[in-house]
Design goal:
This protein is an alpha/beta fold and about 425 residues long. It has helices at about 40-55, 70-75, 90-100, 105-120, 130-165, 170, 180-185, 190-195, 200-210, 215-225, 235-270, 275-280, 290-295, 305-315, 335-350, 355-365, 370-390, 395-405, and strands at about 10-15, 20-25, 35-40, 60-65, 80-85, 320, 325-330. The strands form 2 sheets. The chain has a 5-stranded mixed sheet with strand order 3-2-1-4-5. It has a two-stranded antiparallel ribbon with strand order 6-7. The chain is globular and about 85 Å long.
Amino acid sequence: MSSDSEMAAFIGLDWADQHHVLCLRAADSSQIETSVLDQKPESLQAWIQQLRLRFAGRPVALILEQSRGALLYALMEVDFLRLYPINPQTLAKFRKALYPSGAKDDPTDAALLLELLEKHREHLRVWVPDDPDTRCLRLLSEARRKLVDQKTGLSNEVTSLLKGYFPQALAWAGSLDTRRACDFLDHWPSLEALRHSSRASLEKFYRRHGCPFNRSIDSVLEEIRQAQPLTRDPAVLRASALMVQALMRQVRGLLESIAQFDRQIKDLFERHPDYDVFHSFPGAGPALGPRLLALFGSDRNRFRLADEVQLLSGIAPVTERSGKAHRVHWRWACSKFLRQSVQEFSEKSIQRSPWARACYDCLRAAGKSHYAALRALGFKWIRIMFRCWKDHTPYDEQRYLAALQRRRSPLAKVGPLPPEGSLVKKMSIPCAKNA
């Protein structure tokens, strides 16, 4: 961190969609200058150039309530700016401590940000952006996850509609988030439309797409022949069938977009310098590997201890203690995407890693819920990942098992590793608190 003597000025910036309020104090002055800056590329660049000329390119500390967004992207490449992005909750609680009435105003917030920067900078950390490939990988992974969530929401809506007029389609079309289901419901959005189709066209469809749930074509065709409609109401049938087709067209578009994202992520991930590290963790496939890499980033100085990653990801629990009261609960203030990434990886790892399977079983036997056990397992995994990431060393399951044996952990009593690509079955081993 740069010392106060190195800083030419301090700026508190309260951003908004159209205008930003600035409070600036030069290091050699006690006067606070307040101004308004338009959210326009030309205005931003002109203001940056004015700062550069005024302070001769010396470092300028700037604090703002953003960790991403148009404003941050515009400022991050300015060489003399030292950015201190903070969580909006930090400013909100600081404001509430000074103004209990709840009053809020942009100029006041900019002044509070400046005060926070000048008086409490030792509690803040200057932001060092990852390299472009790592930032792109994180943005792509987050965007892909949003598309997957949209696809899931549409599939649930289609499921609800089909249950109301054509429930058999859920078995005959298979999983609704597949191209097979899109083609099936596009051709046959109702039982009546399906019955008007010839046996030859149905056989051709299932030979091309495969039967759902590993069933035979003859068994599916026989079910279609004997099926009875849930309702014959023409109003319900017409409206529902049209809506199902409309929703499935959106699902088809999302499937194509997700596949495009997958190709981009795969290309970036495989040529990333940390590919060998994050690809080595059992269960970190083409989707979760990049998400774990995005959690740690490329700057090895960003995290001093594994605890910081555990807090950032939301995997570390929160302890509340006051007098005799003591409560431990999961962390609310965190990146939901990062916590979801670690939790989903933990679930995959118990299928690939014997000690992870054993650890999960111990936690479940101790009364932990499924997701609490996954978070506790993720807590252990982050410590392992942190060391591998710091040392630029791929994970070695045999080496970790040897370390468990040296510590006489019950997790070391899991036997040999399974063959490559096979799943780890549930094991019964003695549990211990220090496992």
